[in-house]
Amino acid sequence: MNSEILRSPWLLLAVVLGVLGAFLITLFALPVPGWASIVLGVAALVVALIRTRA
């Protein structure tokens, strides 16, 4: 695995969005914004992977 991914701001964004989504789903019972945040986090993770492989 490339260690550059750990320095990527896209990875940080992916982690923040994933945690925010889980927080919204579990504590506030807001499934739609929670899952939207998780999906955006997965998209940011894909962008991070693509940008570090190039």
Envelope shape: elongated
Number of helices: 2
Q: Report helical residue fraction.
A: over 70%
Alpha-beta content class: mainly alpha
Gyration radius (Cα, Å) is 12 Å
- The percentage of residues in β strands lies in under 5%
Topology:
Layout: H1 9-28, H2 31-53
Helix pairs in contact: 1-2
Organism: Paeniglutamicibacter antarcticus
Transmembrane segments: 9-29, 35-52
Keywords: Membrane, Transmembrane, Transmembrane helix
Structural features, described:
With 54 residues, this protein is an all-alpha fold. Helix content is 80%, strand content 0%. The chain is built from two helices and no strands. Helix 1 (9-28) packs antiparallel against helix 2 (31-53). It is elongated. The two termini are 13 Å apart. 13% of the residues are buried.
List keywords for this structure.
single chain; 54 residues; mainly alpha; 2 helices
Structure at a glance:
The protein is mostly helical and 54 residues long.
